[in-house]
Design a protein that fits this description.
The radius of gyration is 22 Å and the shape is globular. It has 16 helices and 15 strands. Helices cover 37% and strands 15% of the residues. With 447 residues, it is of the alpha/beta class. The chain has a seven-stranded mixed sheet with strand order 4-10-9-8-7-5-6, with helices on both faces. Strands 1-2-3-13 form a four-stranded mixed sheet. A four-stranded antiparallel sheet has the order 11-12-15-14, with helices on one face. It starts with 26 loop residues before the first helix and ends with a helix. The longest helix has 18 residues. A hairpin with a 2-residue loop joins strand 1 and strand 2. Helix 15 crosses helix 16. Bound molecules: pyridoxal-5'-phosphate (PLP). Pyridoxal-5'-phosphate (PLP) binds next to helix 5.
Length: 447
């Protein structure tokens, strides 16, 4: 370790693996057979020992414009030389305002009040707090209840974890937030398996909100859902489902929050999922693609009505007692501006839409391989669900993950589901290689 030059960023070597307590990982398994990504460019990672690996997951659903975009790197470098940091509590710096205005150019019309955070988790908790503050500001302080959905993922803060619906993410951590309830998830394989795009069946599942209103009366502040659920293993919303949810929220005075941390920034073929799915929320979270993941940053976009109700309804002084030291951090702001500019100049959402059919065909070409029990997709997202090995859940998917990596393709697995989300610059030759490699790995793990 000591013989490694401090600036050796090109070929870092594995050193002591003990200190880093890895997030959402099997530290023991990983550290016994480490695989290291040391460099990245365009569609590719390169391992510490020089192997090329196609990025089938845009890192972690985040490097939507492809790796190492010069425009973003240079913007960060330039800003670091101008000013490293300045606070945004009752003082400001120009680039945070410029970044918010730039983000508002990309968000759906009407969602243009932008609150900066540092991650998707912080965005989820911020959105929930804004919803509660809004209800209180409009004289509905009894609306303290938050509704999520089974299998939803909203990060790992106490708000997002509680409103989220993924059992293993909750069970180690005690009591959760009070006053939280959940809608049923939308996974109906008996009706919808192997659907391309939005499934026909399942809009009625939104009606469960009526049941929650019957139970809780006018105490619900907000419903938060991912427009297309990613981390749980890709659940595409049934046709009409989000429309129904929107109608019921309006009927009952409930805010609709979309967690667009994955679906934002072109992932499903439009700048945000709201546009592709044709239903707008009142509040929207984002992160990941916001800076192309070059610097951590998240944001919440709120409607004018939400912003005005809170800000203009407050007594003089601070209007929302919430914020982060790094809200609107100058380096992240620089990266966000450059990232949004790239989305526009390269029409990344349009590229995703244009590639969707080819990518969909690639995904569904795996239909019929051993143990493939469902394939779901929209935009440049695909989920391939595998039959788990008896008594050994996740084993098959993990072995396929390792086989693919060793064959030069990075995939992601969640449970026994393969989730794919390549950078939006993906080309046909990459798509071919991704699905050929996965197909080979599925066959090799048929037993
Ligand atoms: C929909 C959604 N919300 C929130 C998060 C959490 O984001 P972060 O890991 O940046 O906190 C994620 C991460 O995958 C996500 O997919």
């Amino acid at each position: 370790m000591n013989d490694m030059p401090a600036n050796d960023m090109i070929t870092p070597r594995p050193n002591d693996l003990d200190a880093f307590w890895m997030p959402f990982s099997s530290n023991r398994t990983y550290k016994s057979t480490p695989r290291l990504l040391a460099r990245a460019e365009g569609m590719y990672y390169y391992t510490h020992d020089g192997h090329e690996v196609i990025d089938g997951t845009a890192g972690l659903w985040c490097v939507n414009a492809g790796h190492g975009r010069r425009e973003i790197t240079e913007a960060i470098q330039k800003q670091a030389a101008i000013m490293d940091f300045a606070p945004t509590f009752n003082i400001g710096h120009p680039i945070a305002f410029a970044a918010a205005a730039k983000v508002a150019e990309m968000t759906p019309p009407g969602l243009d009040r932008v609150f900066f955070t540092n991650s998707g988790s912080e965005s989820a908790d911020t959105a929930l707090k804004i919803a509660l503050a809004y209800q209180r500001a409009r004289g509905q302080a009894q609306r303290v209840r938050l509704v999520g959905r089974e299998r939803g993922y909203h990060g790992v803060g106490f708000g997002g974890m509680s409103v989220g619906g993924i059992g293993p993410n909750r069970k180690q951590f005690g009591a959760m937030l009070p006053y939280v309830d959940h809608l049923p998830h939308t996974h109906l394989p008996a009706h919808n398996a192997f659907t391309r795009g939005q499934p026909d069946h399942g809009a009625h599942l939104a009606d469960a909100l009526e049941n929650l209103v019957a139970l809780h009366g006018d105490t619900i502040a907000a419903v938060m859902v991912e427009p297309l659920a990613g981390s749980t293993g890709v659940l595409v919303p049934p046709k009409g489902y989000l429309n129904r949810l929107r109608e019921l929220c309006d009927k009952h005075g409930i805010l609709l929050i979309y967690d667009e941390v994955i679906t934002g920034f072109g992932r499903i073929g439009t700048p945000f999922g709201a546009e592709r799915l044709g239903v707008a929320p009142d509040i929207m979270t984002m992160a990941k693609g916001l800076t192309n993941a070059a610097v951590p940053m998240g944001a919440v976009a709120a409607s004018e009505e939400v912003y005005r109700t809170i800000v203009e309804g407050a007594p003089a002084g601070i209007e929302l007692f919430h914020g982060y030291t790094y809200s609107g951090h100058p380096l992240a702001s620089a990266a966000a501006i450059a990232s949004v500019d790239l989305h526009k100049s390269d029409d990344l959402a349009g590229r995703a839409m244009a590639m969707e059919g080819y990518f969909e065909d690639g995904a569904h070409s795996l239909n019929g391989l051993p143990n493939v029990i469902d394939i779901r997709n929209m935009g440049l997202v695909a989920g391939i669900e595998l039959q788990p090995r008896v008594g050994k859940p996740t084993d098959r998917a993990m072995k396929i993950f390792h086989r693919c990596f060793d064959a030069g393709v990075l995939i992601r697995t969640t449970g026994d589901i393969i989730a794919l989300s390549p950078p939006l610059i993906v080309e046909r030759k990459h798509v071919d290689r991704i699905f050929e490699t996965i197909g080979d790995a599925i066959r090799a793990e048929a037993a």
